[in-house]
Task: structure prediction
Amino acid sequence: MILAKHLKSIHLKMNKILLPFLIAILMSACGYDNEPIIRQIPLPVNRKIEKKTTMKDTNTATLDLPSTTKALVLRTDFSSDATWDKVCNMISLSGKNLGFSAAVEYINQKEFDNLKLEKLYPRNENYKCWYLFIVDSVTIGHEDHPILCVDLTTQEDNTFRLIPQEMWAVDNNLAISNMDFWEFQDEVDSEGIFRGV
Result:
C-alpha cells in the first residue's frame, strides 16, 4: 500500500515535469501557429452569455455557454470585486515561473450571481471544454481562495477545489488528458483543496 502510494506520487510529479514537453509537441503536431506557448491571459472581461430562456432568475434558466475551447472561470459571487480581481490575477500568474499559463476565459456577469451547479447540466454543445471553474462564495470567503472545478461530463456532483496558483497545472493536464479528474481529487488535502503535488 505504501509502495503504491509512493509510485503514484512519483507518477504525478513526473507528469508535472514532462508536461512542458508534451504540450510543445502536441501544439506543434496540431498545427498551431508560431505563437509562443506562453500566452498572456487577458484580465476579466464581461463576456456575454445568452440563456435559452428569457427568465430573469438564472437558477431556473438553462445556460447557453459560449462557443470556446478554453475553460471558463465563471464568477457566481459578487460580494467583493477586489477579491475577484485578486483571484484572476493569481490565475494569470500561475505557472509563469515554469513557462506555462492557464488557457481560461473569464465570465464576470451579475446575472450569474448564486448560480446553482445543476443549471450547468446538460452541457451545451457550443462549449467544447468538458470542465469549468467557478469562483463562488467559498472562493471569495476562504483565505486561500479555492476555486471549484466542475466535471461537466456527468450530472453528478463531480467536483474538487484548487488554489488559484495551481490553475495552470489543472487546466493544462485536463485539457490534454495527461491526468484524469479523479487524480486531482485523490490529491486534495483535508479541506478538499488541491494544492499541488
About this structure: The radius of gyration is 17 Å. The longest helix spans residues 2-29.
